[in-house]
Structures are given as structure tokens and as C-alpha cells.
Amino acid sequence: MTPFNKPYLTGKETHYIYDAVNSGKISGNGKYTQKCQAFFEEHYGFKKALLTTSCTDALEMCAMLANIEPGDEVIVPSFTFVSTAIAFVRQGAKIIFADSYADNPNIDADKIEALITDKTKAIVPVHYAGVACDMDKIMELASKYNLLVIEDAAQAIDSFYTGKDGKKRALGSIGHLAAFSFHETKNIISGEGGMLTINDDRFIHRAEIIWEKGTNRAEFFRGEVNKYGWVDTGSSFLPSEVIAAFLWAQIENIEDIQTKRKLLWNAYYDGLKNQATIILPKVPSYATNNGHMFYITAKDIEHRTNIINALKENGFHAVFHYISLHSSDYYVSKHDGRTLENSDMFTDCLLRLPMFYELELSDLEKMFPIIK
Fold first, then answer.
1. Comparing 229 with 347, which gets the higher pLDDT?
2. Which pLDDT does position 358 carry in this prediction?
3. Which of 2, 175, 224, 249 has the fewest CB atoms within 10 Å distance of its CB?
4. What superfamily does domain 254-370 belong to in CATH?
5. Is the sign of the CA dihedral 76, 190, 203, 212 positive or negative?
6. Mean pLDDT on 311-321
7. Which alpha helices (H) appear in the chain, and where do they start and end?
């Protein structure tokens, strides 16, 4: 069976892990942590990058930094991973779900303003499949209503957005805060692991305090920092040097990894573009494609199931993705009842095809006649 994903190892991971362990500094924020963070800041223009134990933890740090409190509202796309919402629910927020575009799983930026109230605190755009949301529109709304923008860039490393001003910016460098994932299904990996990026000077010092843990929970939840400058987050967000050492081996090979993934993505597109029964991904003119994922949209859930089964019978593992959060058991009673038809459509129809470094073009050619 050709798997949906296979983690890629460059060959240097164990060498750097040995070096990290041998250094005697393995608890975190050592040589490899600092090398990784410096790379991301210099290469992508993030004001501050902090490695975290996961993207979920980075999102939880964002919720803390934004001082989300009970009663605050946070606008989140319904078609996303549960962590996008739960990080803010943990702080007491009410989640206001937004629909996707009809031709793109990203949040429909034209529908956001109608969801803003005097209780809205933040907008959380998710760059699905590493393809940028319409960040000009989102940042303009944030400025107009004095809101924070927190980019869920879990899938978006090495992907970019070109604004109306003609400037090309890395995803994760546009909003006030952003979160990335280095889970084994992502382009570059550390097994588990993530990153918080901070683009607003107001949050840098406090982010470093939260990242390193603190001691005064009561003052923290009042949004204050005690006289010692510490807050108690109740958990550690700082990953070990072992995770950072693994990630550094991946960073050293990011150009090679990205070249191969984009080659596969383009081959998928060219091989399936004449297949009339499916819809291929749309990459808006303002976005780039980082080769994170290749998905297709089937006619309906039955059609998708038939494709999954046909691929499986021929030795290929393809998978669907999210179930719209607004329709989940937890959120269904908390949602305001609006129909989010595009989110529901992608729930039923979106199908992800195998995508990993060691996948060969010959594998794709075997799949093309099956996908119909």
C-alpha cells in the first residue's frame, strides 16, 4: 500500500540529535533551538520566532497573548482542525464560525464583517493546504474594528502572499501572531513540534515569559504580569533540544524538499486537469503554492467514497479531511444556526491524495486513471 504520508528523513537528524544530547543542554533553548529560530526570522521576516511543542501549543499561546477572556468572540473558519478553535475556547471565548469560499476551503473574507460585534476580539484565518487567505481584506477589517489577526499557518511554511501593494510576504508574517506545525505530515517536520511567530512588538516580551513558564496563575488570568515578570501558564511550551536538532536537519534541506513537493503537486494537477468529474485546487493570484497537499473535490460523499475505495483496491491510501466544526457534537448546540454550505460541502467532498517526498511520478501516473 502506498501510504497517504511518509515522514522524510534527510540523514542528518540522528547526527544532530547526538550532538544535542552530547552537549548536555537538552531541555530546550540551546544551540539548535536558536539556530532554527534565527533561520525563520531571517528567511521569512518574522519579528520573533519561538519553537513550541506543537502548533496547538502555539495557538494556545496566541490566545493567552491576546488576553482572550470569557465572553470574547473569536471568528474562526468552520472547516479546520479542532485546535484552531479549542485554543480560544480554553480561555473562555465564544467561537463564531465563518464559511469557506465555494471554490476554496479558506475563510470567505467577504463574509467576515457581518460576523463582527462589539465582543469580537480576534480573527483566525487558516491558510488551508498552505494557500493564503485574502490577507489584505482581513487586515483591513482588523484595523477598522481594532481586532487581532492570528494566522493559523499550520500547513503554510514557505508559502507567500502578495498584497495590493505588490509586496510578497511569508504567511505567518502578516497577522499580529501566527502558529505553525512541524508534525510528521507537514513539509518539514520534527515528529511533533510547532512554532509561534510574533509580528507585533507589544507581544514579544510577554511571549518569551509564557514560553519559559511562570509562577503566578492568578495574576496571569487577570492579564497581568507580577513584579517578577513571570506568569504561570500551567504547562511548558518550550520543546527539547532533541526536537530542535531534528528540525534543523530538515531546515538544511528545505529547498530540496520544497522542490520535490511542488514537482509532485504540479504533476498531479497536469495529470488530472482534464478529468471532468472532479474539481482541482484553486490557488488565487495573490497566493503561492508550497506543495503541502494535493486535494480534489468530488461531486458528493458517495463519489468521494467510491474514489477512496478504488484507490485502496489498487494500493493507494487517500483520505478525507475535517468535519465542519459547527456541526460537531461539541459545537452544534453553541453555533448560531447559520448554514455554512461550503464548509459542509468540503466536509463531504474533499479528498486528499498521497503526498510525500519519496512519492514518485510513476506512482501518480498509476493513480490518474483510477480517479474518475
1. 347
2. 97
3. 224
4. Aspartate Aminotransferase, domain 1 (3.90.1150.10)
5. positive
6. 97
7. 13-23, 31-44, 55-65, 82-89, 135-145, 204-211, 217-221, 241-252, 254-272, 301-313, 341-349, 361-367
Spatial contact of 318 and 308, defined as CB atoms under 8 Å apart:
yes
Cell of 45: 521576516
CA 341 distance to own-chain centroid: 23
d(CA 161, CA 287): 5
Exposed, middle or buried by CB within 10 Å (0-12, 13-18, 19+), for 177?
A: buried
> Which three cell numbers, joined as nine digits, stand for 239?
520543546
Class of domain 13-251: alpha beta
pLDDT band at 5 (very low <50, low <70, confident <90, very high): very high
pLDDT tens, residue by residue, 352-370? 999 999 999 999 999 999 9
**Which helix or strand (DSSP H or E) is residue 223 part of?**
none
Q: Which amino acid is at 84?
A: T
pLDDT in tens, 122-134: 999 999 999 999 9
In single-letter form, the type of residue at position 318 comes to: A
Closest CA to 111 of 136, 143, 141: 141
Upper half-sphere CA count for residue 32 (Cβ side, 13 Å): 31
What is the Cα 372 distance to its own chain's centre? 30
3-state secondary structure of 100: strand
Longest dimension (CA), the chain: 66
Residues of the chain with CATH 3.40.640.10: 13-251
Residues of the chain with CATH 3.90.1150.10: 254-370
